[in-house]
Amino acid sequence: MSAQHPHNDGDEDIYLGADEGEEIINRDEDHPMDSDGEDEDQAMTYEEQITFQNDSSAHFDSHSDSVFCVAQHPVHNNIVITGAGDDTAYIFDSTPSPRPVLPQSYESNPQPRERESLVPLAKFDGHTDTVNVVAFTEPAGEYALTAGLDGKLRAWRDSTPQKTGFAWEFLAEAQEVEEINWVSVCPYQQGSEEKRNVVALGANDGSTWVFRIDAADAQPISIIQTFFQHTASCTAGAWTPDGNLLATVSEDGSLYVYDVFGAAAAAGFTGSPGTNAVVVLTAEDQRFAVEGGLYSIAISPGGGIVAVGGAEGHIKIVGLPRLAGAVPTGKGKAASTQSATTSAAGTILADLQAQSDGIETLSFSQPPLTLLAAGSVDGSIALFDAAHRFAVRRHIRDAHDGNAVVKVEFLQSRASRPGPPASASAGRPYLLTSVGLDGVVRRWDARGGTAAAGNGLLKEWRGHMGATENEEGEQAGGIMGFVQGFEGKRIVTAGDDGISLVFEDE
Questions:
Q1: Which string of DSSP letters, residue by residue, matches 401-450?
Q2: d(CA 230, CA 234)
Q3: H or E element, residue 394
Q4: Cα-based distances in Å from 279 to 246, 287, 364, 387, 407
Q5: What's phi and psi for 20, nearest 5 deg?
Q6: Per DSSP, which regions of 125-275 are E strands?
Q7: CA angle 66, 72, 76 (to 5 degrees)
Q8: pLDDT (tens digit, 0 to 9) for every residue of the chain, 506 residues total?
C-alpha cells in the first residue's frame, strides 16, 4: 500500500463557460436514469480524493495489515520498530529521504515519480497472531522485543559492535501466557545494573511478569518476578522513573504497586502480605471502585503519584511510596522522616471525572509544569493541574472530531536518560501530542494564558485514513499509536490503515 495520495488545496473551482449558461437539458423525471447511483458514487469518490491531505515526509508500508504498535530506539531515535496484524514486526530507519529537485514545469515533468516507501532494516517473524506490542530495552537498545496475542515474547539482539540498531538476529522466545496486553521497559539509571534490559508484561489472565534479557545467560529470557493478584485481564502497567516500583491495573478495577527489586523493603516499607505489593487498592473499596474496570496508567515524573483511568471517564490519583531519601524504621528524626514519607502511600488523593467515556490514555508533563492529560473515548482531552488539587485547567471537548483519543503524550525530558544530550530546543514540556481514530496527529500548547488560538491547538498533520465501519459494523482506520523522541521534531505513527507515516515539525 502506498502513502502517496492526491492532494488539492481547494484553490481551483470548476465554472460553467459563458456559452453553456443558456443550455437547456430536457429530462423525463418519470424515468430515473440507471446511472444515477453510479454517478453519485463517482462524485463521492472524487470529493474524497480532492479533500484528502497527506502532510507526511516519509512512509513505511511493508506491513500487509493494520499497524498496532510502534517504538523507537532509546539512543538512536531514528530507528523505529512496528508491529501489526500480519503477525510480523519491522525495524526501519525513519529518516526521510532528501527531497528531489523537481522541474519547474509540467511539460518537463508530466508524470513525477511516486514517493518510495522507507526500506526495512529487519523483518521479525515467528508469531502466530497479531504483534500488538513492540519495545527496545534500556539503556542502549541492545534488544528489540515483540509480543503478541499468541502469548509469545520474542527477543532480537542488535549485532552491530556500536549498537547502532542496523543489524538484528533472533535471540530467544518465552511463552508463559495466552495473550500479552502490554510491555513496559524498566527505566535504567547509571549504576542500577539490576535494571539493565529488564521488562514487565501484563497478560489477559491477570498475571504480570518481569523478565531480564541477557544473551550471555544460559536462558536469555529469564524470569525475575511473577505476580498473580489481578482477577481479570491486566490492562496496563508502568514503572516509577527510578525503576524500583511497578504499578499495574486491571479490568477488575484493582491497582497493585509492586516492589520488584526490594528497594521499598530495604527502605522500611511494609507490603501487603504474600503479594510483594506496597500499594493495594481494589473495587472492594467503594472509594476506589470503577464499574467497568481500569485501562490506563501514568506515573508522575517525581514518582510520587500514580494516575489510573477507567470506564465512564473515571480517574483516580493515588500516592506512592517515596523511596528517595527514605530510611529504614528507627528512632528519633529518622523514624519521623520515614513515617512522613510513607503517609501518602496508597492514599486516594483525588477522584476525577471530567469526561463521559473510558480513559484510554494518560500522560504527566515534565517540570516545571504540573499537568496531567487524559484522552477519552468520547473524543475529548482534559488537562488537570496537579499543583491545584487536580482542578480542570482545560477540557478540549472535540479534540479529534468526535473520534476516540488513542494516545496523548507530553514531550519527555532526556535528563538522566540514555543517549546524546538534548538540544536547546528540547525544553518544551508544554507541548502535548495526541492521535485519534480520526487519523489525525495534533499538537497542543498546554500552558494557560498563552496566545495559542482556541483550545491551544498549534498544528495538525494528516495522511491516515479516519475510522469507518466495515461490513461487519466494526470500526477500522485511525492511528493506533506514535513516538516522538525527546525533542518532538519527528513523529512516527502506527496506522490502522497498514501504514506508518513520518511527520516533521520544522
A1: TTSPEEEEEEPPP-TT-SSSPPPGGG--TTEEEEEETTS-EEEEE--TT-
A2: 7
A3: strand 391-396
A4: 10, 15, 20, 23, 26
A5: -100, -10
A6: 131-136, 143-148, 152-158, 168-175, 180-185, 198-203, 208-213, 221-227, 234-239, 245-250, 255-259
A7: 145
A8: 444 444 444 444 333 334 433 333 344 444 444 445 545 445 444 344 434 689 999 999 999 999 999 999 999 999 999 999 999 999 999 999 875 555 544 455 555 567 899 999 999 999 999 999 999 999 999 999 999 999 999 999 998 887 787 899 999 999 999 999 999 999 998 888 999 999 999 999 999 999 999 999 999 999 999 999 999 999 999 999 999 999 999 999 999 999 999 999 998 888 788 788 999 999 999 999 999 999 999 999 999 999 999 999 999 999 999 885 443 333 333 333 333 344 588 999 999 999 999 999 999 999 999 999 999 999 999 999 999 999 999 999 999 999 999 999 999 866 545 444 444 335 789 999 999 999 999 999 998 654 445 689 999 999 999 888 666 666 678 999 999 987 899 999 999 999 999 999 97
Q: Which three cell numbers stand for residue 22?
A: 443558456
Q: The whole model's pTM is what?
A: 0.83
491: enclosing H helix or E strand = strand 490-495
Q: Which cell numbers hold the place of 248?
A: 499495574
Q: How many CA atoms lie within 13 A of 156 on its CB side?
A: 25
d(CA 190, CA 55): 39
Quote the cell numbers at residue 256: 497493585
How many other CB atoms are found less than 10 A from the CB of residue 415? 12
Which of 360, 364, 354, 381 shows the shortest CA–CA distance to 456?
381
Q: Are 326 and 341 in contact (CB under 8 A)?
A: yes
Q: Cβ distance 271 to 279 under 8 Å? A: no
Q: Identify whether the C-beta of residue 467 lies closer than 8 Å to the C-beta of residue 478.
A: yes
Task: Give Dmax over CA atoms of the chain in angstroms.
Answer: 101
Distance CA 270, CA 255 (A): 17
Q: How far is CA 42 from CA 51, 54, 158, 465, in A?
A: 14, 22, 50, 19
All cell numbers assigned to 138: 534500556
Reading the block at residue 159, the C-alpha cell is: 549485532
